[in-house]
Write a sequence for this structure.
C-alpha cells in the first residue's frame, strides 16, 4: 500500500460564520512515506486543516490533493486511500472493540471471512485481543486510542491522519503509540500526517514539522533544521554562593542575551554558539566565581515556536478557540 | 445558629439566582403544571357529568387543587435535580468544604424550592382564575390550602435532596421523580375517591396523598373535610424526610 | 436497494439495536412508563366510560391505543439522542470516512427503531389482551394494530433523527421531550373529541394529527373496521414518516458536508 503521491495543498483556507478564518491559506507538501508533524497550540487551525484534507469539511479557498486525488472533486477516492483517527474517543462506548472492528470492516465492504481475519489481526497488532469483547466504556484512554488507530487501518490506507493522537495519554501509552506509528511509516511505507501540541512528539516522530499559528504556517522543516535556524544553544549557570548571582549574570551577559532560566541561576543564549562555552568557563574563572552547576541547553522546538510567534507554545492556546469541531464529549 | 442561617441564605441565593436567570431550569417547572391543568381541567371537564360526581366548585377547581399540590411536589423534585447537578459538577463538594454548618445547605436548598414554587403556584392560580375557576372557600380556608402546599413542597424537596445526596448523580433523577409521580397519580386525580373502583380505590384509600387532595378540594369548595388528617400527613412527611435528607447529607459527607 | 447498501443498513441497524439494549435505563422506561400511565388512567378514569355518549363501556379498551403513541415518543428521543451523541463524539465523522452511503446511516438507525417498536407494540398489546381487551377487528386487526404502532414509531423516530441531525445536541432533544408530550396530550387521548367540552381544546385536538393516529389504532380495538379512521391513521403515519425521513436526509447531507 505504498502511496506515490503524498499530500499537496495550495492556499488552503477555511472561513467560518462571522468571518473567522480558522485556516488562512496554507501551502503543504508531504512526501510519500513521510511522517509530517503539524505543530501548534489549541485553536491554531490544526483540526480544521485535517478535516479539509480528509474531506470532512469543504475548504472555502485553495486546493488540496491527497493520494493524488482532489479533496473537493474526488472525495470518495480520497477517503478510500486514507485512514483517520480524529479527536478523542470517537468511539461508541456501548460497543465492544471487536464490534467496532466488525462495523468498520463491513462499512468498507469486506466479506465475512476477510472481516474476521482483518479484525483479529488488527486487534492483535494494537494489543487489544484480550479486551476485544469488553465495552469501550471500560477502556482506558490508551486503549481507546489504540482501537482508534486499528479502526483507521482497517482498509490498509496509504495515508494516515492522526489528530492529536496522544493528547491526554500517560507517557507509557504515548510511547507505545509512537512506536506503532513509526513502524507503520518505516515498514509499510504509510504516509503519516500528525497534528500535535506536544513539541516532544513532533521532535521524536516527525521527519518534517510545520508550525501553525492563527491559521498560518509560520515555519516548516526538519526538526533539526528548524532548531539550527534558531541556531544557538543557551547556557545556564547556578552560582555556588547565591550572593554572587549578579556577578555571574554580568559575566554571562558578555556572551549573549539573557533568556529565562531557573530562579537561582542565570541563562543566556550564546552568540558564539556551542564553541563559546570554553570562553564562558574561563571568564567566570577569571572573575573568581564558583559555580554549583553549569549546563548547555540545545535549542528546542519551543524555542523555534517562541522565535517565530513571539510566544511560548505552552499556554499559547489560551486564546479564542476557532476550531471547526466542538470539543468531544467525554464518554 | 447564625452560621446555619448564613449558609442557608447563601445556598438559597445562589439557587434562586440560577433558577431565575436560566430559563431552561425555571420554565419546565412552570410549564408542566400549566400543561397538566390545561389537559385535565380543559380536556376532561365532561368527566364531571359522570353520575355521582358532586363537587360543588366545579371541575376546574377540582383539577386546580390537584395541579396546585402537584406543582408543590414537583417543584421540590426539580430542586433535587439541581442538587444532583451540583454534585456532578463538583460545586456541592465546594459547598461541603466551605460551610461551617452543613445542615444549612439542606435548608438552603429547601428555601430555593419554596421560592421557585411560590412563582409556579402564583402563575397556576392566576391562570385558573382566568379560566373561570369558582372559589367558594373563605380566606382562612384558602390560606390553609397554601400552607398545605408549602408543607408538600418542603417534604418533596427533602425527599429529593436525600436521594440526590446519596447518589450524587443526575441519573438518580427518575428515582426522585417516579415515586412522587406514582404517589400523586394513585390518588383520586380525575374523580373523587368515591367514584374509584377496584384496585385503584383500594390503593387510593390508604394513599396519604388522597387526604391532601380531598382536604385541599374541600378547602377551595368551602366545605372542609379531612383537614386535620391532611395536616398530620404533611407534617409527618416533613419530619420523616428531614431525617432522610440529613442522613443523605451524612452519606455525602462520608463519601468526601 | 442494492446489496452493499442493504448490508450497510443491516450492520448499522444491528449497532442501533445493540446500543439501545445496552442502555437499560433508556429502554426500560419506554416499556414500563406507557403501561404505568395506562394503569393509572384506566384506574382513575374508568368512570368516564359512563359519560353519556362514550363509545365503549370499557375505558381500558379506549385507552390502550395511547400506549403506542407514547412508545413512539420514546422512539423519537432514543433515536434522536443516539444520533446526536454520534455527532458530538465524532463517531459520525468516523462513519462518513468509510464508503458508507449516507442513506445507510439513516435507514440503519430507523431499522433499529422498528425492531424496538415491534417489541414495544407486542408488549403493550399482550398486556392489553391479558387485561381483557378483545379487539373488535379480530386476529387480523391485532396484527394491524402492531403494524400501525410500528409505523407511527418509525415516523416519530425519523423526527428524532431529523432533530438530532439539525441540532447536533442530545440536550436539545431532551429539552424538546416535554413539548412533544404536550403535543400528545392535546389530542383525543383521554376522551373522544366530541366529548371534549372546552371549545379551544377540542379545536386543538381536532387539528392535532396525533388524535388521528390514536383513533386509527383505537378504531381497530373498539369499533372493528372503520375505513375512515384507518385511512386517516395510516395515511398520516406514512405522511409524517415520509416528510420526516426526507427532512432528515437533507439534514444529514448538510451534516456530512464531505465532498
Amino acid at each position: 500500500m505504498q502511496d506515490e503521491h503524498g499530500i499537496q495543498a495550495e492556499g488552503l483556507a477555511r472561513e467560518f460564520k462571522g468571518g473567522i478564518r480558522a485556516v488562512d491559506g496554507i501551502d503543504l507538501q508531504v512526501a510519500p512515506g513521510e511522517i509530517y508533524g503539524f505543530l501548534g497550540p489549541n485553536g491554531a487551525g490544526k483540526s480544521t486543516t485535517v478535516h479539509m484534507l480528509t474531506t470532512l469539511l469543504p475548504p472555502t479557498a485553495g486546493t488540496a490533493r491527497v493520494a493524488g486525488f482532489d479533496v473537493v472533486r474526488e472525495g470518495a477516492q480520497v477517503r478510500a486511500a486514507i485512514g483517520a483517527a480524529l479527536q478523542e474517543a470517537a468511539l461508541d462506548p456501548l460497543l465492544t472493540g471487536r464490534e467496532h472492528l466488525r462495523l468498520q470492516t463491513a462499512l468498507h465492504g469486506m466479506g465475512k471471512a476477510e472481516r474476521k481475519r482483518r479484525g483479529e489481526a488488527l486487534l492483535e497488532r494494537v494489543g487489544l485481543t484480550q479486551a476485544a469483547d469488553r465495552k469501550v466504556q471500560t477502556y482506558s484512554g490508551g486503549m481507546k486510542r489504540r482501537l482508534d488507530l486499528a479502526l483507521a487501518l482497517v482498509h490498509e490506507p496509504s495515508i494516515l491522519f492522526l489528530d492529536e493522537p496522544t493528547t491526554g495519554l500517560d507517557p507509557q501509552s504515548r510511547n507505545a503509540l509512537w512506536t506503532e506509528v513509526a513502524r507503520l511509516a518505516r515498514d509499510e511505507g504509510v504516509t503519516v500526517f500528525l497534528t500535535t501540541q506536544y513539541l516532544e512528539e513532533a521532535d521524536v516522530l516527525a521527519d518534517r514539522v510545520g508550525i501553525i499559528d492563527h491559521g498560518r504556517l509560520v515555519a516548516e522543516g526538519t526538526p533539526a533544521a528548524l532548531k539550527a535556524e534558531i541556531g544557538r544553544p543557551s547556557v545556564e549557570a547556578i552560582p555556588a554562593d547565591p550572593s554572587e548571582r549578579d556577578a555571574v549574570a554580568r559575566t554571562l551577559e558578555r556572551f549573549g542575551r539573557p533568556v529565562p532560566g531557573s530562579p537561582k541561576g542565570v541563562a543566556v543564549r550564546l552568540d558564539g554558539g556551542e564553541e563559546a562555552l570554553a570562553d564562558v568557563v574561563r571568564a567566570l574563572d577569571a572573575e573568581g566565581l564558583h559555580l554549583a552547576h553549569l549546563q548547555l541547553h540545545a535549542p528546542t522546538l519551543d524555542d523555534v515556536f517562541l522565535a517565530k510567534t513571539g510566544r511560548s507554545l505552552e499556554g499559547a492556546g489560551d486564546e479564542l478557540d476557532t476550531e471547526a469541531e466542538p470539543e468531544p464529549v467525554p464518554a | 445558629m447564625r452560621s446555619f442561617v448564613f449558609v442557608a441564605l447563601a445556598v438559597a441565593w445562589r439557587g434562586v439566582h440560577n433558577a431565575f436567570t436560566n430559563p431552561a431550569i425555571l420554565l419546565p417547572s412552570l410549564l408542566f403544571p400549566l400543561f397538566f391543568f390545561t389537559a385535565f381541567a380543559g380536556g376532561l371537564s365532561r368527566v364531571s357529568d359522570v353520575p355521582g360526581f358532586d363537587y360543588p366548585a366545579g371541575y376546574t377547581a377540582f383539577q386546580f387543587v390537584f395541579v396546585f399540590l402537584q406543582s408543590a411536589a414537583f417543584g421540590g423534585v426539580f430542586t433535587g435535580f439541581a442538587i444532583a447537578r451540583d454534585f456532578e459538577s463538583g460545586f456541592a463538594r465546594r459547598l461541603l468544604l466551605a460551610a461551617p454548618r452543613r445542615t444549612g445547605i439542606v435548608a438552603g436548598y429547601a428555601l430555593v424550592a419554596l421560592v421557585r414554587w411560590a412563582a409556579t403556584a402564583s402563575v397556576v392560580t392566576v391562570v385558573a382564575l382566568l379560566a373561570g375557576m369558582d372559589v367558594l372557600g373563605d380566606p382562612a380556608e384558602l390560606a390553609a390550602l397554601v400552607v398545605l402546599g408549602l408543607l408538600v413542597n418542603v417534604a418533596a424537596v427533602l425527599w429529593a435532596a436525600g436521594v440526590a445526596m446519596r447518589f450524587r448523580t443526575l441519573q438518580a433523577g427518575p428515582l426522585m421523580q417516579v415515586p412522587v409521580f406514582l404517589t400523586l397519580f394513585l390518588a383520586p386525580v380525575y374523580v373523587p375517591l368515591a367514584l374509584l373502583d377496584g384496585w385503584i380505590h383500594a390503593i387510593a384509600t390508604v394513599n396519604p396523598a388522597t387526604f391532601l387532595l380531598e382536604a385541599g378540594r374541600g378547602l377551595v369548595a368551602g366545605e372542609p373535610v379531612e383537614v386535620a388528617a391532611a395536616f398530620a400527613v404533611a407534617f409527618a412527611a416533613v419530619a420523616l424526610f428531614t431525617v432522610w435528607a440529613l442522613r443523605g447529607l451524612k452519606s455525602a459527607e462520608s463519601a468526601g | 436497494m442494492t446489496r452493499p447498501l442493504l448490508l450497510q443498513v443491516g450492520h448499522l441497524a444491528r449497532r442501533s439495536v445493540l446500543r439501545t439494549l445496552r442502555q437499560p435505563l433508556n429502554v426500560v422506561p419506554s416499556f414500563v412508563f406507557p403501561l404505568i400511565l395506562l394503569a393509572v388512567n384506566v384506574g382513575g378514569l374508568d368512570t368516564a366510560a359512563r359519560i353519556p355518549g362514550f363509545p365503549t363501556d370499557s375505558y381500558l379498551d379506549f385507552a390502550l391505543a395511547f400506549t403506542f403513541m407514547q412508545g413512539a415518543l420514546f422512539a423519537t428521543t432514543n433515536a434522536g439522542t443516539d444520533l446526536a451523541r454520534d455527532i458530538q463524539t465524532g463517531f459520525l465523522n468516523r462513519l462518513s470516512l468509510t464508503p458508507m452511503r449516507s442513506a445507510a446511516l439513516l435507514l440503519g438507525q430507523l431499522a433499529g427503531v422498528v425492531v424496538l417498536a415491534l417489541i414495544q407494540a407486542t408488549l403493550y398489546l399482550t398486556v392489553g389482551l391479558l387485561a381483557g381487551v378483545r379487539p373488535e377487528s379480530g386476529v387480523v386487526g391485532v396484527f394491524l394494530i402492531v403494524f400501525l404502532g410500528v409505523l407511527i414509531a418509525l415516523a416519530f423516530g425519523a423526527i428524532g433523527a431529523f432533530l438530532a441531525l439539525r441540532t447536533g445536541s442530545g440536550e436539545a432533544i431532551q429539552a424538546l421531550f416535554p413539548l412533544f408530550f404536550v403535543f400528545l396530550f392535546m389530542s383525543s387521548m383521554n376522551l373522544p373529541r366530541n366529548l371534549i367540552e372546552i371549545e379551544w381544546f377540542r379545536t386543538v385536538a381536532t387539528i392535532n394529527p396525533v388524535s388521528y393516529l390514536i383513533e386509527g389504532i383505537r378504531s381497530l380495538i373498539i369499533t372493528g373496521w372503520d375505513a375512515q379512521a384507518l385511512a386517516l391513521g395510516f395515511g398520516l403515519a406514512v405522511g409524517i414518516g415520509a416528510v420526516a425521513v426526507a427532512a432528515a436526509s437533507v439534514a444529514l447531507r448538510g451534516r456530512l458536508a464531505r465532498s
About this structure: The two ends of chain A are 34 Å apart (CA to CA). Chain A is about 35% helix and 25% strand. Residues 318-331 of chain A have pLDDT under 50 and may be disordered. The CA atoms of residues 89 and 330 of chain A lie 8 Å apart.
